[in-house]
Amino acid sequence: MAELRLEELSAKTIVAANSLTLRPGQEQFVTPVSYSIADAVIDPGTTWSRVVLDDDEVVGFIRGNFDPDAEHEEFRSCIWRINVSADAQGRGVGKFAVMGLADEARNRGFEQLTVIWEPGEDGPESFFLHLGFTIIGQTQYGENLGALKL
After folding, report:
1. DSSP letter, residue 127
2. Which residues of the chain have a pLDDT value below 70?
3. First to last CA, the chain
4. What is the CA radius of gyration of the chain?
5. Which among 95, 117, 122, 127 could bridge 25 via Cys, Cβ 3.0 to 4.6 Å?
6. What are the domain boundaries of the chain?
7. pTM for the full model?
């Protein structure tokens, strides 16, 4: 694996990002990248969308949201989406993406980064807990709300 880097989502990378394949069973826990792309167009002021490149290959996608005026604190500095190609999982791509987003949050003056995930056997809970997120609550739909202190 070459050195990973984050790059803004662009016309050059959008098709590859939208074509990322997941491991079987993970689809139920992840919204398609195309939804994030649409969100970024609707609200570009608070959206932070990046692809993770390994050489010139798109191996991951992350979308964050930074809105210090959001009504709910958990949406002020948060991960909206993260997708890592099935072939790249377990190689540090997801951690690299989350730490890049955490650095951006810190640079913007935020003290925590939040994420919401659905519990389940093939879900991302162990990934987020391994990165240092702690469960701080649940949504009304039974999803876990996690926070990472910056």
Report:
1. H
2. 1-2, 21-44
3. 28
4. 14
5. 122
6. 4-149
7. 0.85
Q: Which CATH number fits domain 4-149: 3.40.630.30, 1.10.3720.10, 3.40.50.150, 2.60.410.10?
A: 3.40.630.30
Query: What pLDDT is stored for residue 11 in this prediction?
Result: 82
Cβ contact 23:84 at 8 Å: no
Tell me the C-alpha to C-alpha distance, in Å, between residue 133 and each of 43, 54, 149: 26, 25, 8
Q: Which two tokens stand for residue 149?
A: 């202190």
pLDDT recorded at residue 35: 46
Residues composing the chain: 150
Amino acid at 64: G
Q: Given this model, what pLDDT does residue 25 score?
A: 55
CA distance 48 to 106: 14
